[in-house]
Specification:
By secondary structure, the protein is an alpha/beta fold. It is built from 6 helices and 5 strands; from the N terminus they run βαβαβαβαβαα. The protein has one domain: Ribose 5-phosphate Isomerase B, Chain: A. The protein is globular, with a radius of gyration of 14 Å.
C-alpha cells in the first residue's frame, strides 16, 4: 500500500461497519457519514469517487445497507470500477480480473470478520492485467 491513500465512506446503514473497520485500519481517510442518522448514499459515493479519480493509486471502500446503491452510484463516475463483495475470494477476483479501485460492502449482510478479510484481500491483491486489461479497456 505504498503511496496510496485508502478512503472509506458509508451511509447510515453502513456506519456501524465503517466504524468497526476504522478501528482495525486506522490509517484510512474517513469521508463520512459521522453517525447512523439517515443520509443519502449517493452523496458519499460521489465524495469518495471524486478523491479516487484525482489519484489513480488510491483505493476506496464504500458501505451501505445492501451495497447495491453505493455500487450503482460509484460506477457512474468515469474511471471508477467498484465491486460489491461479501467474501474475500470475490474481493481478490475484483482486483485481479477487474482492477477494481473501489470495494463495496453490504453493511447489513456481512460481519466484521468477513469484512476485515475482504478489505485485507482487496488492498493486498494486484491487478493481473494481460487478457483482463483488454476487457477493461472496452468499458
Amino acid at each position: 500500500m505504498k503511496n496510496k491513500t485508502v478512503y472509506i465512506a458509508s451511509d447510515h446503514a453502513g456506519f456501524k461497519l465503517k466504524s468497526q473497520l476504522l478501528k482495525i485500519f486506522s490509517k484510512m481517510a474517513d469521508l463520512g457519514t459521522k453517525s447512523d442518522e439517515s443520509v443519502d448514499y449517493p452523496d458519499f459515493a460521489h465524495k469518495l469517487t471524486k478523491e479516487i479519480v484525482k489519484n489513480k493509486n488510491n483505493f476506496g471502500i464504500l458501505i451501505c445497507g445492501t451495497g447495491v446503491g453505493m455500487s450503482i452510484a460509484a460506477n457512474r463516475k468515469k474511471g471508477i470500477r467498484a465491486g460489491l463483495v461479501n467474501n474475500a475470494k470475490t474481493a481478490r477476483l475484483i482486483r485481479k480480473h477487474n482492477d477494481a479501485n473501489v470495494l463495496v460492502l453490504p453493511g447489513r449482510f456481512i460481519n466484521i470478520n468477513e469484512a476485515k478479510k475482504c478489505v485485507q484481500t482487496f488492498l493486498s491483491t494486484e491487478f493481473e492485467s494481460g487478457r483482463h486489461k483488454k476487457r477493461i479497456n472496452k468499458i
